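Data deposition worksheet. Section B asks for the primary sequence of the deposited chain exactly as it was used as input, without tags or linkers unless they were present during the calculation. Section C holds the resulting structure in token form. Section D is free text for depositor observations; keep each observation to a single sentence. Incomplete worksheets are returned to the depositor.
Section A, Depositor: J.P.
Section B:
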Amino acid sequence: MRGAVLRPFSCAVLLVSACLLVAVSGCSLGDDADAGQGDDTVTADTTGSSVVGHGGVTLPLPGSAFDYQLGGGYPPPPGVTVVARDRMDGPANAGYDICYVNGFQTQPAESASFAAANPDLVLRVDGEPLVDAGWPDEYIYDTSTDATRSALAAVVAPWIEQCRTDGYDAVEIDNLDSYTRSNGMLSADDNVAMARLFADTAHRAGLAIAQKNTADRAGELRSAGYDFAITESCIEFEECADYTEHYDVVLDIEYTDELGRDSFDRACADTDPALSVILRDHDLVKPDDEAYVFDSCRS
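Section C:
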């Protein structure tokens, strides 16, 4: 599911952000802003409202009630303390805010301009940008070399930094699985290497980072520094255990046109305590739309 768009990065800005996080959280990063990134220890903070992951970044508590608002922001339902929104929206300020960034494909409104400005950073077939067949207005980034990955990281880093400036606590990076739609031009290793650069950038900015989907790569992404997971339809596709094996915090969105209401209610009765699960309408519309659906296993 998509919902956002995409912006060299300033080491000074990133270090300032990390220092600000230390001041606010009371955690010490030592002399190196990356210190502890390889440490999988997750501990509760003194307020009991969150947990602390790699390098002192803050994670949501396992089992938190959450909402997924990529179709546009609105006041969260009662009890919701974790909200994910498109990076172009402001945070919900309900407790813990996650910023959506499309890190492996263009956003629809920017596809043509991005490809024109960065012709070597999108995959091409017969000279034309390769599109995602499921989202034909999105072009797939070329993550196949160190050079293109570095250039893409420089493009995406300011978007991640802006999430921090706007008050978000974490980022989720979408379309990690773009290699499966690349006509064989990309490999999983290419995208995992790209994902590692995004994790480094997020942590330097003082943000946690969430793996988005791609269950079969959860172990690699966890080792690459990812802090928690946001999944779509892991119950429907029987993938939830692939995430909970590696992450203490897993936020799952099920959809009315897949799992459905009846199956959702049954699934809630057997939900792993490590999972936070919600049911949403396919297009993630706002409550004033008659198609809006929101339900939570935590309700």
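Section D:
The radius of gyration is 18 Å.
The chain has a mean pLDDT of 85.
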